[in-house]
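Changelog-adjacent note: as of this version, every example in the card shows the full chain rather than a window. The one below runs 322 residues end to end.
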Amino acid sequence: MSTRLALLIGAALVALLALLPVDLTPYGIPYPGLKRYGTYILTLWLVTAIAAMGVNLIVGYAGQETLAQAAFVGIGAYATALLTKAGYPFGLAFVASGLLAFVVGLALGFPALRVQKHYLAFVTLAFTVLCWLVFRNEQWLTGGVMGLRDIERPHLFDLSLRPPLRFYWFVLTIAAVMTFVLWWILRSPWGRAFTALRENPLRAESLGIDVRLYTLLAFALGSAYGGLAGSLYAPLVEFIDPSPFALGPSLLFMLMVVIGGSGTFLGPFVGAAIAVLLPEWLRAWETWYLLIYAVLVMIMMPLFPGGIVGLASRLLAPSKRP
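Full-length structure tokens:
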């Protein structure tokens, strides 16, 4: 696909998503739009997809392992909540959250230089537990189990973003920019180095790729995406406590990437949609949700290791004639 065509398709999808929650009946189109809760769920999907993009960069493109993304979302969420409640503007808090997650992710990447695969997963798992304990026990800073309340949504110049539709458009704009940045990274020499690192680290090093540098860079960039997602999550829910940043949500981020399609560009969006929207679709069978999700994972792993996006690509690809 050419660059121009990809950008046009991306712009069309962003325009479609911008109109999705809007009531179009006054314009003669029989579409009532989404209510307040539907707009909230759509915004949560975008925030979740941003965090999942970071996991996909680390796992799907750089070939590393991480179970720490929920911790980085928590780092970004708490940093933004504390800074905005202290009177700092959201823009500064957003940038600071991303930079903090980037630096911490850079430090967490150092174990990846010595251990690989499941050993590295255990290291990131331990980091997640450590962060959760800090969020839970350091009440003077994080509020402990009582959390932080009254997190205000930002203002854009003199325009309040508290209305759900305005905040959704704000998050959609940021998600579109971050998606474009990731698309540019993956098409750059950095992206080709990440792919080489995933396929064969020894061969990549023999070709002159600095394996240490790109391993650390993958962790730092992927973690920064988690921190920025957390920065948007805090004003979305307006209250944070330690529970969304525990080990379970980190495992869920990994499953999103696996089910959506690890190493595919659209995989995080599809996986996040399943993780966020599936409970809403199955609300009538709430007790069966986890069972259905587990069965879906067990079916996808042996039969369709490329995830939903990989399966769709195989089905839509033109058959080769002998």
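Structural remarks: The first strand starts at residue 155 and ends at 156.
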